[in-house]
Every structure is written in C-alpha cells, then in structure tokens.
Amino acid sequence: MIGPEVDPVQQTNRNIHHHEEQAEAHNNYNRRDPLEILEHVKVDDSLQCPKSTIKKAFTDSSDNELSISKEELKKIEKQLRLVFVEFYQKLLHLKDYSFMNLSAFSKIMKTYEKRTSRAASTVYMKVVDNSYLGSSDEVNFLLEKVESTFIRNFTRSNHKKGRKLLRQKAKTEKQSITFITGFFSGCFVALLVATIFRITSQQFIKKKGTSYMENIFPLYSLFGYITLHMLVYAANTYYWKRYRVNYPFLFGVRAGTELDYREIFLLTSGHAVVALLCFLINLQIEMNSRSQQYKTVTEIVPLILVVLVLLITFCPLNIIYRSSRFFFIRCLFRCICAPVFKVRLADFFLADQLTSQVQAFKSVELYICYYGLGEDSRRQKKCQTHGIYNIQYFIVGIIPYWFRLAQCMRQFYEEGDINRAFNSLNYLSTITAMVFRTAFELKKGRSWKVLALVTSALAVLQNTYWDIVKDWGLLQRLSKNPYLRDKLILPHRSIYFIAMVVDIALRISWMQLVFEMNWSPLRKVTMITVTSCLEIVRRGIWNFFRLENEHLNNVGNYRAFKSVPHPFSYYDEEKDKNE
C-alpha cells in the first residue's frame, strides 16, 4: 500500500489555477507607477559605521526623506551589487533543490516498482511533473531577469564579466602550494635543529650567551607567537572542512576567497623560515669574534623583520592573498574602533584571538622601547627602569580585553540580550586580574600577590564556565547526549569531555605566573613564553568548538545564507495604519 490514489487531472487543474492567480498578482504588482513606489523608499542608514552611529544619536529618526550624496550613491551601488549576487546564488540553490527533489521522487518510484512489481511510476511521476515543484518556471525566469539586469547595470552589458561575477566558481586546489609548503617545512626543521645546537653549544655559553638571550629572545618570541597561532588556525580550518563546518559563511568571507588549511600552512611555514633564519644569523654573529663589526647591523634585524611583515600585510598589490589580508585588516580596524562599529562574528572572533596574544602585544611595546632608547646590549633591562614603559606595560596588557568588552557593550545595546552584559563582566574581571598581576610583577609585595591571586582565580572560574557552557553549548544535563548537547559533529563523545578538561587545565596554567619563584631571568622569560604558547593552543581548541556550536545553531535555525544589508527600505503607510 502506498496511500490513497490521486487523480492526476484534478491535481494538474488545481496547479494551473494556482499558477494563474500568482501570475495575475505578480503582473498587478509590476504595473504600479514607479514614482508611487519611490515615495515610499528611503536610504537605509543602519548603525554599522561610526558616521551612522553618531548621526543616529543626534538626529531625528523619523526623517525618512530620500536624500543621496555622491558618496552614498557609490556605497549604494556597491551594496546593490552584493544584493544581486547573493540573490542570484540563492536562486541557484533553489534550482538545485528542485532538481534534487525531482530526482529523489524518480529514484523512490523506481525502487518501489522493483520491489513490488507494480507499474506506478508513470502515474505518480506525471503528478510530480505537473505539480508546482516540477512545472514552475519561476526560478529560471528570475535567474534570467537578475542576470540581464545585473549585466546591463553593473558591467555595462559585458556578458562574460557579468556571468563571472554572478556564477562564482569554487576554488581549485594547486599542487604547487603543497610542494612549496613541504619545502618550507623541511627548511624550518633544519633551521630549528641548527638553532638548538647553536644555543646549547659550550662556545655560546662561555661567551655569556645567556645574557644575550635574555635581551634578544623576547624580541623574536613575537614571531614565534604569530607562527604558532597561524599553525593552530590552519589545523582549525582543516577540521572545520573535514566535519563540514561552514566557516567561510560564518565569517562572512566572499565565496572563493577564503583560505584553506594548505594555504594557511604555506604562509605559516614561510613566516617561520624567515624568522628562524634571522634569529640564527644573530646567534652566529654573536658567537663569531671576527664578525663583531657587523653587530650594530644585526641589532636591527628583528626590526627589519617586523617592517617586512607589516609591508606584506598592508601591500595594496594583488599578491599573497590580498582579499584575505584586507579582510583581516578590516576586521582588525573594527576591533580597534569598538564599540563604534556594528559587531559581526568575524570581528569578535578576531578580538578573542587577540586576548590570547597579550604577550605578543607586550613584545610590540618592547620593540618600541628597545629601538627607541638607543642603548646597546642591555636594552631590555633599561626599558624596565623607565616609568613610562611601566605605565604602558599596564595598558598594553588590557587592550585586547578592552576590545571584547566594548564589543559586548555594543551587542547588548543593539540586541538587549542580557548574556552580552554578563559576558562583558567576564572581560571586566579579566582586565582587573591583568592589572593586579602586572602590578605584582613590577612592584612585588604580599598584598599585590594576594590581590593578583584572588582576581585571577575569579577570572579563571568565570571564563572557564563561559567557554564550556555558553560558547561551546556543553554541560546540558537534560540533552540527548548527557552533559554535552543534543547535536554533535564529532563522532566520539569522549573528545568533548577531553576538550573540557584540557580547557580547564590550560586556564589554570595561566595563574602559575602569579606565584613568586626564584627563577633566573632567562628561565622566567622561558616560562612566560611556554605559558603564552599553551594559551594559544587552548584558543585553537576553543576555536573549533565555538564555530561548531555556531554552525549547529545556524542549521537549527535554518540560516544558510548571508543577510546582505539593502541600501533602501520600503515603507507602506496604508499597510502600517491597517496593522
């Protein structure tokens, strides 16, 4: 039995009548006077940039007149282009959806005929073909109309360029990337082994190498933090792709421009090779007595390396993944300007990454002091004796947490979600802990130590709870998977419990620097570096489960497309009055 029989003729007549009603309504809508429509249109100036935020605060929101300047016209044209492209992509998805469903019907009926030996496929497929799903040409009509309108208005009737912009192709993998990455990885391993042998050699120790390392190591550790974070992010993208977490959509990256794990690993290995090579050159010149004349030149090698990284990052030429670099710069700029800009997922995700790079921020401050004082071999020691440096040391440590605090305040203002306010309290407690920890580090004393321990413990408890319960959505006692959540992507539930334990352990390791121990200066620098690296690893674990939870929430709420802001809004006064 397959259910009650359906009369194909009656079904077809109903579908035809329904299509005629829709066509008539569509024609009536299109026959309206354009000037009448224009009266109800205004420029949509939502709170997405500093100018609109300030303007909204000091102007009357009831003023809906259509007033457009040249700058606004360019912005509107850009937004309309994005709207057309996104709408075209949605129509293509609908077309694919229709085709897959028709194919599914056909396969189901063939399987049914094969197992029951009944010839029912012809009758039922005729009903399916005559249904709205099988007979409607509306999607194809809209595709043609959108394509012709886009080509005519945005590409000056250039059909090839217009179709290329609308029909965005998937990225193709290049074998050269794999080859170059392997080459850089081999070079990195060789340089790392050579550096370790050079540092541990007796000749280096006899020449007071430990004193030199105390000064030069904090400078090069900046590149180590960046390299490790890029490596962790490459692993994140690999597992997101493997378990089908749609990270380009979540970040709002333009299709076809996102970096996959191989490209990120290529950049990571190249960056590591250059940084390690410069470090090895510095060590070699320090050990070789015949090359002491070049010592003043090698002192600026770390600074040259920083300048090189900045030049590549901000290079306007279309080289080294320009679209990804500019996307990163835009997100970073919105983080710095928080809470003025509207907060997107990519913005607060980047700000969270920066909270795990506090030591890198302090290294940047050390660069400013190191090359600003004009001293020689013991510049770092001199830095810590300056009052201005110590004041900046307080401020630099809390900058990343301020970014997130300001973003949470902005989100609470826009959404009214109380969770945003509670999250801002987490970052406020972390800022307090960082202030007391820095005070204890610089001034010592029992009272500073107690304050640092208490505030750090409170911050660790709050942030650990927020990581696991809010950001990851775990520890739900009544879920289908006890103490996890209803939907999971990873096949083994034990991985989630292991991740929670590791997150707690690495959060607690953040506190160990508060305890005063009789460490040598070099050992203290090493412990700070190791702790900072563990925090970066913890952030990588957090990244995967945070985006996994966001992806599952999107799927559960049927959010599969970007919400592109439209430049115009339409207001129907009569409809508003009736409502």
How does this structure look, described?
There is one protein chain. The protein is mainly alpha-helical and 579 residues long. It has helices at residues 8-30, 34-38, 50-58, 70-116, 121-130, 132-135, 138-154, 159-166, 175-200, 202-206, 209-242, 247-251, 261-287, 295-298, 301-313, 322-336, 345-355, 358-372, 379-383, 387-415, 418-443, 446-471, 494-509, 521-556, 573-578; strands at residues 41-43, 568-570. Among the domains are: 8-52 and 68-168, no CATH class; 175-242 and 260-320, no CATH class. Helices cover 73% and strands 1% of the residues. The longest helix has 47 residues, at 70-116. Mean pLDDT is 82; it is low at 1-6 and 575-579.
Write the layout of secondary structure elements.
Layout: H1 8-30, H2 34-38, E1 41-43, H3 50-58, H4 70-116, H5 121-130, H6 132-135, H7 138-154, H8 159-166, H9 175-200, H10 202-206, H11 209-242, H12 247-251, H13 261-287, H14 295-298, H15 301-313, H16 322-336, H17 345-355, H18 358-372, H19 379-383, H20 387-415, H21 418-443, H22 446-471, H23 494-509, H24 521-556, E2 568-570, H25 573-578
Helix pairs in contact: 1-5, 4-5, 4-7, 7-8, 9-13, 11-13, 11-18, 11-24, 16-17, 17-20, 18-20, 20-21, 21-22, 22-23, 23-24
